[in-house]
Amino acid sequence: MKTIRCNQQIIYDFNHQHPPILHVPSGTTVEIETYDCFENQIKHPDELQGVDWSRVNPATGPIYVEGAMPGDVLKVKIEKIEIGNQGVMCAGPNLGVLGDELTELVAKMIPISDNKAIFDDLDLPLNPMIGVIGVAPAGEGISCGTPGSHGGNMDNTMIEEGATLYFPIFVEGALFALGDFHAAMGDGEVGVTGIEIPGKATVILEVLKGCSIPHPMLENDQVWTTIVSAPTLDEAAKESVKMMAELLSIQTGRSLADIVMLLSAVGNVEICQIVDPLMTARCVVSKEMLTQMKIKHLVG
Q1: pTM (global) more than 0.85
Q2: Of 120, 206, 227, 288, which is the most exposed, with the fewest CB atoms less than 10 Å away?
Q3: How far apart are the first and last CA of the chain?
Q4: How far apart are CA 112 and CA 153, in angstroms?
Q5: Using an 8 Å Cβ cutoff, are 193 and 181 in contact?
Q6: DSSP string, 159-183
Q7: Residue 177: which of 7, 15, 40, 296 has the closest Cα?
Q8: Whole-number Å distance between alpha carbons of 233 and 95
Q9: Hey, which residues does 205 pair with through a beta bridge?
């Protein structure tokens, strides 16, 4: 297993011009250490006022995966997620859904103890997940704070231990990176921050040849999903459904009308996040339903 540390190299945008921190063959397991979304700048609530906002959402990487070429798919299996023992959250003017009703920028430190997040007198359940994860786009770099077809800041609560992601590859080597872990976060990330925390992820990186996808996808033990980011939530939701419908139609040979009816009956459209420069939604279909349709894999 290969290991990379966040103090070796981080990036603030997904960009094909970044030199790789590591070259690995397809199928390699890599342990990746990350800073939190503030690059570990906040150790006490008072330090929020002095944060360098140009150093937010860093991702560790990128990693060059041998054999990855434009038009291929990068499969990323999340074997393990480990998080630190203290997180941080903030809220303030112009941040998130209710930022227009807040007048003061405040931060709160969130200790992690006994598999819970301690929020004042409340014990919050943990759902460790990765907020920023993806590959380099073909054109100009895209800020790690922005999601897109390359992945990026999708803030999808399903990107957790045991999940497998699939990314379209746009440049040679894919140039994979990740960061922005959360100890806990609700769908939507309505206040801009989940419980931001440093951590480590163990992932398996594999190149899939002979298949292509327009946007990221995710599977776990129960479901397959399509993940789309767009300027509005309506656009993201509609495109995620369209992508799922096209995949199901191709795999089954069923008419688009039948697929639309099936998705209306058993598909779920869910919000990932509504606070980044683009909005992100997912379309979710159970593996049990896909098994009935004799579909083993939607990718590869």
Answers
A1: yes
A2: 120
A3: 24
A4: 24
A5: no
A6: -BTT-EEEEE--STT--EEEEEEES
A7: 15
A8: 18
A9: 28, 76
